[in-house]
Automatic annotation (TrEMBL):
One of its GO terms (biological process) is regulation of DNA-templated transcription. This is HTH luxR-type domain-containing protein. GO terms for molecular function: DNA binding. Keywords: DNA-binding, Transcription, Transcription regulation. It comes from the Bacteria. Pfam families: GerE. Residues 476-540 form the HTH luxR-type domain. CDD domains: LuxR_C_like. InterPro entries: Sig_transdc_resp-reg_C-effctor, TPR-like_helical_dom_sf, Tscrpt_reg_LuxR_C, WH-like_DNA-bd_sf.
Amino acid sequence: MTVVGALERGRDACRRRAWADAYEQLSIADGQEPGLAPDDLERLATAAYLTGRDVVVYRTRAHQELVRRGDLPAAVRCAFWLAFVLLNRGELAHGGGWLTRARRLMPPDLDCVEQGYLLLPAARQHVMGGNWVEGGELSEKVASIGERWGDLDLVVLARYVQARALIRLGRVPEGVALLDELMVAVLADEVSEVVAGTTYCAAIEACQETFDLRRAREWTAALTRWCAARPGLVPFSSQCEVQRSEILQLHGAWPEALAAAGAAVERFTAEPGHPAAGTACYQAGELHRLTGELSAAETQYRRANRLGRLPQPGLALLRLAQGQQTAAMAAIRAALDDEPDPANRCRLLPACVEIAIAARDLPTARAAADELSGFADQLDSPVLCAAASHARGAVLLADGSPRDALSELRRAWTAWQNLDVPYETARVRVLIGLACRASGDEDTASMELDAAEWIFHQLGAVTALAQLTRPPINCHAAPAGLTSRETQVLRMVATGRTNRAIATELFLSEKTVARHLSNIFTKLNVTTRSAATRWAHERHVIE
C-alpha cells in the first residue's frame, strides 16, 4: 500500500468515524518520510484519543511544526487540545504547562477564536473553585467569541460551563434547559466527536448532580447508541459503562449493572491516574454490597479510596450490614463533617438517617432527615423528594408515631414507584409493614413485608433479605401510638424492673414512671404489667 493510499484511506475513515481504521491507516502514512503534515497529525491524534491510545506525541509534533511555520493561532489551538486531554486524565502539571505555553505564544492584540479557547480553562476553574458568578460571566464571554467566529465546538464547551455555574447558583431550571439545548447540537451532529462525547458525559454528570433521574436515563441511552455507532470508540464508551451501571442498578437490572461496572473497572484501572477509576470501583462495590458479597464490596471500596474516590456512604452501609453500628455511625458522621457540597451531602444524608436509627440516635437521624428535606424543597427533584419522605417516615416510625409515619412512607412509595426504582420501593414497603404492625394492622403488615421480600428475591438483594429477617429493634420502637419514652418504659417493665428501678435508671421520679405506665396500659388496652409484657413480646417490641 502506498503512503498516499494509506493517507487517503485514513482521511476517509475519519469522515466515516471508523476510528480504529483511521488510526491504522494514518499510522502507516506517518511511518514513511517525511511523515504527516500538521492537519493529518491532528487527525491521527483524534483517532488515537478515541481508540484509547496516547495522543501526546502526535499533538506535540503538530504543535512544533505549526510554530515553525509561524501559524501561532493554530499552534495555540493544538496546545489547548493537548492540555484538554492531559487535564481530563488528571495530569494537572503537564496540562497546565501546555496552557501556559499557549498563552505565551498568543499575541495579545490578535483577534481570533483561539482567544476564546484560552479563556475557557479559567472559566471552568472558576466554577470548579466555587466562583460561580465569575465562571458564568467568563463562560458567557467565551461563548460569544465562539459564536462570532462560527466555532460551535467552543460555543458548546463554554455553554456547558455556564450551565454548571447556573446549577451551582441554584438556577437549576435555567441550567438544565441550557444543557438540553447543547444536546440538540450534539444529536444534530454539529460538533466534533471529542466535543460530542464530552458533552454527553457532562450532561449525564449534571443530571446526576441535580438528581434528575429521567434525564440521566435518557441521555445515558443516547450515549450508548452514539458509542455503538462508532466501533472501536474507547474513552466515552468506558465512561458510559459507569453511568449505564448506575442507571441499570436503579432500575433493578443488577447482573447487567455489575457487568457494566466490571468493564469500567477493568478499563480505567489499566490506565494509571485515570480520574474515573475510583468511581468505577465504588460502583462495583455498591453492587457487591447489595448482593451480599460483602468481602468483594470491601475490596472495591478500598480500591476506590486508593484511587481518590471517598468510599462513602457505601462503606458505612457495609459496616451496618456487618452489624458494626458504632463504626458505621463514626464513618457517616466523618463523611458529612468533611463534605460542604450540597449535592454530595444529599447522597450521604439518607444513609445517615438509616444508620442513626439503627444506632438509636434519633436526634442525628431527625437532623439528617430535616436537612435532606430542605435540599428536596430547593431542587424540587422527584428523587430527592422521594428520599426525603422516606427519611421522614423512617424517623417518625422510630420515634413512636407509626400513623404519622405511614403518611410519609406511602408518599415515598408512590414516588419511588413512579421513578421505577424497585429496590427503594421495596425498602420503603418494609417500613410501611412495620408501621402497620406497630398500629395493630397485622394483615396489611404481613402483605407489605411479603411484597418487599418478593422484590428483594427478584433483585438478588441478599443483604436486604438478611436485614428483613432481623429488622432493627427501632423499627418496632413505637407500636400502638406509644411515644419513644413510653416504649422505653415498656421494654424495661418487660424485663421485670420495678417502677423505682426504672425511675433510677432513667433519672425520672417514680410518679412520672407511674404516669407513663398508666398511659401504656390505656393505649395497649391492658390492666397488668404481665399483660403489657406479653403484648410487647408478641409484637416484637422486645429484642
